[in-house]
Amino acid sequence: MGEGYLPIADHGLIGDLRTVALVGGDGTIDWYCSPSFDAPSVFAAILDAERGGSFELSAVSAERTKQFYFPDTNVLITRFFTEEGVGEVQDFMPVCDDSGEVDRHRLIRRVVCTRGTAGFQVRIAPRFDYGAQPHTARLAEGVALFESATLSLALTATVPLDCDGRDAWTEFKLTEGESAVFALDRVGGQIAPRGCAHAEAEREFAGTVAYWRRWLSASRYRGRWREMVHRSALTLKLLTYAPTGAIVAAPTTSLPERVGGERNWDYRYVWIRDAAFCVYALLRLGFTREAKGFMDFIKDRVHHRDDPPLQVLYGIDGRTRVPERELPHLEGYRRSAPVRIGNAAATQLQLDIYGALIDSIYLYDKWCEPISSHDWDAVSELADWVCAHWDQPDEGVWETRGGRRKFLYSRLMCWVAIERAMRMAQHRGLPADLARWRRSRDEIYRRIMARGWSPTRHAFVQHEETDVLDAAVLMMPLTKFIAPTDPKWLSTLDALAADLVSDSLVYRYDPQVSPDGLHGEEGTFSICSFWYVEALTRAGRLDDARLVFEKMLTYANHLGLYAEQISTTGEQQGNFPQAFTHLALISAAFNLDRALG
Predict the structure, then answer these.
(1) H-run or E-run covering 43
(2) Which positions ≥6 away from 217 have C-beta within 8 Å?
(3) Rounded mean pLDDT of 187-195?
(4) Phi, psi of 211 (to 5 degrees)
(5) pLDDT, tens digit, for every residue of 482-510?
(6) How many CB atoms sit inside 10 A of residue 53's CB?
(7) Cα dist from 42 to 39, 402, 480, 574, 578, whole Å
(8) Is there a contact between 532 and 475 (Cβ–Cβ < 8 Å)?
C-alpha cells in the first residue's frame, strides 16, 4: 500500500445530511468538506497525505483495530485493541432541524476506554480550500480556533489541548469506564464556539442513534439480505443533501479508478440518470418522503427552457455551472494525479438522461402521487424533444471523452422516455401527441433491432457500426424493451458473460477495443454487476443470479460499503461510497428475493 494511504475501502462514513466525513480504520478522518458535500475540503489527506490535512485520533500502540456501525444507524465505532486494554472512538454528526444549529455541522468524536487502560493521541491539522488557503490556529479559553479567509472551525475538548499556530494536539490516558469528548464545529457569524461536555455528548449520541433508527423503521424490506439492503439505504440517506433533496453520486472527488491512472473525477454532484434508480429503490423500500424530495429536485430542473433542455448533472443546490479544473498542488491518492474538482461532463450530450428522468416521473406517478398538470406539460415537451433528437450521436452513459457515437444505450433510454410518457398519457387520459410519439418509439425500436444487433457476435453491441460489447445493454430487459427470455437477449447475456464477466464482476466495456479518450485500464463496474444479477433473475436463471449476488456481497468493505469499481485483486477503486452501486444493490436484492419466493 502507498505510504500514508489506507485502502479506499478501509473507511466508514458519517454525516449530517449536508456533508460527510470519511473515517479510516486507523481512526483518522482524512476527508471532510464544510459546510456542504461540494464545498472545499478541510481534511483531504486521502488525496495528499502530506498537504491534505487530517484529524488523527488513535490509541497508542494499538495492535489491531475493528470498525462497525452502531446497529441500524450511521454512528461509526472504531475499536482499538492494545496490550493494556481496549478503547473505542464513537464518531457521529448530529442531524439538526432548521434551527440556528444546523449550520454548525458539529462532528463529535467520543473516546471511551471499555476495558483496562488505554492511552490516546490526537492531532487535528486542517488544511483549508483543498490545502491551498493558509490559516492560523490559537487557543482561547481552552478552545482551539482554526481561522482562514473563508472558513473558521472550533475544536473543543474535555482534555487539555496544545497548539503551535497551525495544528492542535493532545495525549491522554483513560481507565475503564472513562471517556473524553472532542467536538469540531463550523463557527462564525451567529455561531459561537460551544463546548461539548460529557452529558451533552451522551444526549447527542442518544439523539443521533434515535434519529437513524426512527428513519430506518420506515423500511418495508424484510427479505434475505436485510442487513446489506438497510446499510445501502442508510448510505443513500447519508448522501442526501437535505435542503434540496438532491443525492450526490458519491461524497468524494478524484479517488482513482485505477491507481496511477488519470480516470479521476469529482462525483459530489447530482446526475439526472440516477433519478430512475433512486426513485425506484426508495419507493420499493417505502421511503416516500425521500423519493418526493429527490423528485422535487429533479422536476425543478425540467422547467428550464434550454436546448438541450437538461444538463447531465447539477450542483446539489441546483446550479448549472460546475466547471472542471485540476489541483496540481495535490499529489492524488497514492500519487494518482490529477486531482479534479468540478466535472466537465455537465456540458456533454447524453441522451439517455431523458429516459431516466421520465421513467422516474412515471414511477413516482404510479406508486406515490399523480404528477401535476404543470409537470405533465414539461414531460410532454421533453418527449417531443426526444422525438426530434433521439438519432444524434452523443457521449453516452459512460461519459466517454473519445468523441460522440450512436450508442445503443442512448437509443434504448430514448425509447424508454417516449414509452413511459405514452403510458402516463394513456393511463391518466392526459393530452399528448400520441401518434407522433408512437411513430418515434417504433422507429427507435426497429433501429436498435436492425443496427444494434451484431450477427457476428450474436449479441446487442455498444453502438452502431461496431461489434464491441457493453454492459449497459443489460438494461434492455430491465427497462422492458425486450423480453428477458427472448432468444436474442439470451444470446447477448451469454456473450456478455464470456467477454465482460469475471467471477461475477462485470466490466463496462474493453477500452482497448473501444477507445474512450483516456489512457489505462479500469476495474469492474459494481453497478453493472448488480444489473447482471437482475438480468439473470429475469431470465429465470435464479441459481446463477443468487450465486453472482452472494459473490458480489463478498466484495463489499467491512461495513457493507462499495466504491464505484473493483480491481483485479478485489480492491475497491474510484469514488467511495457510490450511490449508484447501492441503488442497484437494493433493486437486485428486491427482485431476486421476489423471484426466489
Answers:
(1) strand 41-43
(2) none
(3) 90
(4) -60, -50
(5) 999 999 999 999 999 999 999 889 999 88
(6) 25
(7) 9, 34, 45, 21, 21
(8) no
Element (H, E) at 591: helix 579-596
Q: How far is CA 374 from CA 93, 160, 317, 370, 545, in A?
A: 39, 59, 22, 12, 42
Chain-centroid distance of CA 438 in Å reads 36
Count CB-CB contacts under 10 A for residue 373.
Answer: 9
Residue 294, sorted as left (phi over 0), alpha (psi -120 to 50) or beta, turns out to be alpha
359, 388, 400, 452 from 448: Cα distances, Å: 19, 17, 21, 5
Gap between the Cα atoms of 291 and 297, Å rounded:
10
Contact 417, 354 (CB under 8 A): yes
270-313 per-position pLDDT tens digit = 999 887 888 899 999 999 999 999 988 988 887 666 788 999 99
Answer whether 285's CB lies under 8 Å from 236's CB: no
Tell me the sheet residues that pair with 79.
Answer: 66, 88
Q: Report how far residue 558's alpha carbon sits from residue 556's, in angstroms, rounded to the nearest whole number.
A: 7
Confidence of residue 182 (pLDDT cuts 50, 70, 90): very high
Distance between CA atoms of 597 and 588, rounded to whole angstroms? 14
Q: How many CA atoms lie within 13 A of 263 on its CB side?
A: 21
Q: What secondary structure does DSSP assign to 54-122, as a single string?
A: EEEEEETT--EEEEEEPTTSS-EEEEEE-SSEEEEEEEE-----SSGGGGG--EEEEEEEEEEEEEEEE
Q: From CA 434, how far away is CA 392, in angstroms rounded?
A: 22
Q: In which element (H, E) is residue 186 found?
A: strand 179-187
Q: What are phi and psi of 545, to 5 degrees?
A: -60, -45
